[in-house]
Amino acid sequence: MKTREAGKRIRVNRGPAAVIDLSALAHNLEIVRKIVSNKLIIAVVKADAYGHGSAEISRRLVSLGVSRLAVAFTGEAKLLRQSGIRAEIIVLFDRTAADDYFTYSLTPVIQDKRTAHEFSRQAGKRRTRVRVHVKIDTGMGRIGFDAENAAAEVAEIAGLEGIELEGLMSHFSEADLADRSYALRQLNVFNAIRDKVSAKLGRHVMCHIANSAAVLSLPEAIQDAVRPGLLLYGCSPFKEGHDLRPLMTVKTGLLAVRNLRPGTPVSYGRTFTTKRESRVAVVPVGYADGFSRLFSNNAEMLVKGRRAPVVGRVCMDLTMLDVTDIDGVEEGDEVVILGSQGGETITAADLSGRIGTIPYEIITSLGSRAKREYVN
Prior knowledge:
Layout: E1 17-21, H1 22-36, E2 40-44, H2 46-51, H3 54-63, E3 68-71, H4 74-82, E4 88-91, H5 98-103, E5 107-110, H6 113-126, E6 130-137, E7 145-146, H7 150-158, E8 163-169, H8 181-201, E9 206-210, H9 212-217, E10 225-226, E11 248-253, E12 256-260, E13 265-266, E14 272-273, E15 278-283, E16 300-303, E17 306-309, E18 319-322, E19 334-341, E20 344-346, H10 348-355, H11 359-369, E21 371-375
Parallel strand pairs: 1-21, 2-3, 2-10, 3-4, 4-5, 5-6, 6-7, 6-8, 8-9, 9-10
Antiparallel strand pairs: 1-11, 11-19, 12-15, 13-14, 15-18, 16-17, 16-19, 19-20
């Protein structure tokens, strides 16, 4: 990750700025390729590429040879098409806007027979065919065909007019746990359905079930294709880093620095009171900018390459830091919320561990609200 010199003064404005390192994206993609060999990579760029900006991320992935992308809903796919992305786009969840799939050449994931018949009807009306992937619920309990009857239903869908069955997929619920027994159970269910479908159709269908965690931990789950998301953005679902490089640095500048006497309360509810002569810096980032209120008295930011603790409650627009032990702090000094400065680093895993969540939530929350800058 490219870093900026500790202590650099920057213009203070509302909210954070996110610097997105596209060379780190290329590095992480290469790590995935080494693991999965010649298997197809379906890059997951939903939720605005996990807060990194789906158009820029997708554009770079396509330039690096990625031929298939995955989003959650058609609105995300339309944005990519309007940004000039011509790769195949698989839409994981949306089944309400059939017209968009044909207008923008999108690939739907079929979750039930009613949707399959609707796509068949729409394809027939247009005298065309639509490629589809079919989702099997192997134990996630969310969406997809029930495993018990899935093979027969998939075969029925493959025979519908205008339907070209391209893929068969499922999703792990806990491939990121040390105990992988349930993930293996899901995989066995999926493999049994895959074999039955192949027998019924007399041909093999592209199969994919491996998410980022499974790419790293379940080599037997790496089938015809994989669907990495978090890995591409430089975060690991495990404690091991796997030489991944985070793409995102989130920073801002100090709005003010105040000298406070001992016994001075800071922020709402007086949850922090100074115990000594203190210097408290005000950061123009709050929970409205994706920095959770749960970080109140429970996180750090980097100032002049040193860790400065968050003091008092995080406000909607502001957060306070104790910079008493950091020399020379002034208004306008750069503050790093996520990333590196002067040899110190705060990762998404560091922040998520503080509040009992996952790195996904940290990067999507901070990245989606930040003003972005892309570097190579």
